[in-house]
Specification:
- The chain crosses the membrane at residues 175-193, 200-221, 233-255, 276-296, 308-331, 367-385, 522-541, 548-569, 581-600, 621-642, 648-669.
- It is a single chain.
- This protein is α+β, with helices and mostly antiparallel strands.
- Helices cover 63% and strands 7% of the residues.
- It is built from 20 helices and 9 strands.
- The protein has helices at residues 3-31, 51-59, 83-102, 135-144, 158-168, 173-193, 198-222, 230-261, 265-292, 300-321, 323-331, 351-362, 364-379, 401-412, 430-438, 482-498, 507-541, 545-572, 580-641, 649-681, and strands at residues 68-76, 114-115, 121-128, 152-157, 421-426, 443-448, 464-465, 468-475, 503-505.
- Strands 5, 6, 7, 8 and 9 form a 5-stranded antiparallel sheet that branches. It has a 4-stranded antiparallel sheet with strand order 2-3-1-4, with helices on both faces.
- A hairpin with a 5-residue loop joins strand 2 (114-115) and strand 3 (121-128).
- Helix 7 (198-222) runs antiparallel to helix 11 (323-331) and helix 12 (351-362) crosses helix 20.
- The longest helix is centred in the C-terminal third of the chain and has 62 residues, at 580-641.
Length: 701
């Protein structure tokens, strides 16, 4: 071989690796800034058509600024509060006001202390700026550090504190979450490869993809082209680590296989890339198209998750097809030390997987009925999945001070007093609208808004602006509760019967609109994802029967996963419910990621079917790919399982749904159900392609 060719063979992969390092280095600082452009206010993600959004816009005409109430609350330990304790509480309120004012957090005048009618508690409401962002948890923390009042228990609660405690749950995304994800992936790779170097090369590839993809996401969010919140940031981080590792596992397995056949490491990599790029691109492309279906969501939080996930998958593929091959070529067989694959060495696909494939081939009907029957039984529990939403006060695992404060507040006050429902109605009908609202179950009282207007306002008559008046309805239930949402539904019906132009908004209405919009998204996006993935598989496999089979089995697996989650969430974890967004996001990722392993299996099965036919081909594919696909499934399940290290119920549920679903799909659907079904169907599984007529190449030997 000419010396120049030898130099180029070494130089090209070296330049590719250096290029990745040169790009990722400067971008590393930007990837850590993604949290700075995150928006975690659920109201900001509602569509303009939502009734609560319309009310928010109309409120601006009344010359009032939006605020986020934070409540300071003291409850007597012995059942009574004396005047000295009330006076001391007012001093604490003054200190709290000074802290908030210094931080620029106040948006209006705070209330004085308000004793409860039973004389057991006292509260004060501080209106905070709703746009404080990351500064809010720090200010709330300072308020919680105020000196205690002897004989009382102090709470900082209300919508502002609830949101602060929930937002604080995202603080571990850049550190604890990624540390857990990389740690568990490294452990699995060490067990799989039994090599100290190879896992580091694969982990390094995932790290490169993560740094670049999060930096690109930061620039897109900075320009306002995509919306990012803490939830989507955490999911995207996990996704890129899991996907890049999975694609790396597939490439490494094929490279090791070719190193036994080829003496040259360069030739081995060329063949490995030729055989791996199509399933990797097909897998990544399927996931990208699946998550981009979230663009059809009316919720900005879901809408933003689609693009950031697509960016992460794109760079995971790019890193697995460029950076990792470059590293593997540079290290050659030494990357696999101490179990170096030698030229001419017999390929060991794994006797265990050969036995499984042989068993499936002998009894395909039994395996098909057994695996499908088990999944159907689990899927029967799907209707019991509670997707009615989770109160913000219960969104943190183990509870929070603000959540406990809400319970105390509900014992001594009208729980919704600090965050009333807002009614905007035409001025002509406001008395009748007010009466209808006051007569609604769950409404403690209705008052017209009189302040903030021109001179002469505030005389007991409501302030009128452009023929509209504003009413405030105090609810008996906590504003973040499901009961408050039901009250808003009844309130909208009651005032709408009086005047169809009357609108109801406020915190509880925003939560209700979020739940309704998420439920609508589920109905629209689920069939869209299934359709898109079916079309992609049909183009990839050049068949119709196989794609329908694969999508059907993954859909069944997903239904079974949700059924198991319904049982686990209620009876094992005792969660207060689940959010429709969890179900939607979980479905999209389960179908898009679950189909990956079937793509890996069926592309190899198609390759083997050319010589051996569909029945023998799928069994050969199962024997050869069983180990690597199972390893990939374990890695992806473990990375999503890392979401459970964060204290947020919604992410714990999502981590369980995707992690368990991937394992179920890997160990049951891809190992038993699909091979058994393909073996029974035979060559017709490739209909209407040419392979439906049988092998198209002469059998070896």
């Amino acid at each position: 071989m000419p010396r120049r060719t030898r130099i180029l063979r070494w130089l090209i992969p070296a330049l590719v690796a250096i290029a990745w390092l040169a790009i990722a280095g400067p971008l590393g600082s930007f990837s850590g800034k993604l949290g700075e452009v995150s928006e975690n206010d659920s109201a900001a993600f509602l569509p303009d058509s939502a009734e609560s959004t319309q009310v928010t816009e109309l409120q601006r005409q009344f010359q009032t600024e939006r605020s986020l109430p934070v409540i300071l609350l003291w409850e007597s330990d012995d059942g009574t509060l004396d005047e000295a304790a009330v006076a001391e509480a007012q001093q604490r309120v003054d200190e709290a006001v000074a802290i908030a004012a210094d931080a620029g957090a106040l948006k209006g005048e705070p209330s004085p202390v308000i004793p409860s009618e039973d004389g057991v508690a006292v509260q004060a409401v501080l209106p905070f700026d709703p746009d404080l962002g990351d500064a809010l948890p720090g200010i709330v923390g300072e308020l919680r550090d105020l000196p205690a009042i002897e004989g009382t228990t102090q709470y900082v609660t209300g919508p502002g504190a609830l949101f602060s405690d929930f937002a604080a749950g995202f603080e571990g995304i850049d550190g604890l979450l990624l540390l857990a994800a990389f740690g568990v992936v490294l452990l699995i790779l060490l067990v799989v490869y039994r090599s100290p170097l190879l896992p580091l090369l694969v982990i390094g590839t995932a790290a490169m993809a993560l740094v670049v993809s999060l930096a690109v996401a930061y620039f897109l969010a900075k320009q306002g082209w995509i919306d990012v919140n803490g939830q989507s940031q955490g999911i995207a981080s996990i996704l890129v680590v899991g996907a890049a590792t999975d694609y790396g596992l597939l490439l490494v397995a094929r490279y090791r296989e070719e190193l036994r056949r080829e003496e040259s490491k360069y030739t081995a990599m060329r063949v490995a890339l030729k055989q791996s790029w199509e399933p990797i691109l097909a897998s990544g492309g399927t996931v990208i198209l699946g998550v981009l279906c979230l663009l059809f969501s009316d919720l900005g939080s879901n809408h933003g998750l689609g693009p950031i996930s697509a960016v992460c998958i794109a760079f995971a593929m790019l890193a697995a097809l460029t950076f990792l091959p470059a590293l593997l070529v540079l290290f050659g067989r030494a990357a696999f030390w101490p179990f170096r694959p030698e030229h001419g060495e017999e390929h060991a696909s794994g006797r265990g997987w050969e036995r499984i494939a042989s068993s499936v081939g002998r009894r395909p009907g039994r395996y098909l009925l057994g695996s499908a029957g088990a999944l159907v039984v689990l899927a029967l529990f799907l209707p019991t999945f509670d997707s009615g939403g989770i109160p913000l006060s219960e969104g943190v695992r183990g509870g929070s001070e603000s959540g406990r404060g809400q319970e105390v507040l509900a014992r001594h006050y009208e729980a919704g007093a600090a965050s009333p429902a807002v009614i905007i109605t035409p001025a002509d009908d406001w008395p009748a609208v007010a009466d209808a609202a006051a007569g609604t179950d769950g409404v403690a009282g209705v008052e017209p808004f009189t302040g903030g207007g021109p001179p002469g306002a505030g005389d007991g008559e409501p302030l009128e602006v452009d023929g509209l008046v504003r009413l405030e309805a105090t609810l008996t239930d906590a504003p973040d509760s499901e009961a408050a949402q039901r009250t808003v539904e009844q309130l909208r019906t009651a005032v709408g019967d009086v005047d169809p132009d009357a609108l109801v908004g406020g915190t509880s209405a925003q939560d209700l609109d979020t739940q309704d919009t998420a439920a609508r998204d589920l109905l629209v996006i689920v069939p869209l994802v299934l359709l898109v993935i079916t079309v992609v598989l049909a183009l990839l496999l050049r068949a119709v029967v196989a794609p329908l089979l694969l999508v059907g089995t993954v859909a069944l697996s997903t239904a079974a996963t949700v059924g198991v989650a319904a049982l686990v969430f209620e009876h094992l974890f005792d969660f207060p419910g689940s959010d429709p967004q969890v179900l939607l996001i979980g479905f999209v990722f389960l179908v898009a990621l679950g189909i990956d392993y079937n793509i890996f299996l069926m592309t190899r099965a198609r390759e083997e079917s050319v010589r051996h036919g569909a029945r023998d081909g799928v069994l050969r594919a199962l024997a050869v790919t069983g180990g690597v696909i199972t390893s990939a499934g374990l890695v992806l399940a473990a990375t999503f399982g890392a979401l459970t290290v964060l204290p947020l119920v919604i992410l714990i549920q999502l981590g369980f749904l995707v992690g368990f679903g991937v394992l179920l799909d890997t160990l049951v659907v891809r190992t038993l159900l699909v091979p058994a079904a393909v073996h029974l169907i035979g060559d017709r599984v490739w209909w209407p392609g040419t392979l439906a007529k049988g092998p198209t190449a002469p059998r070896p030997g």
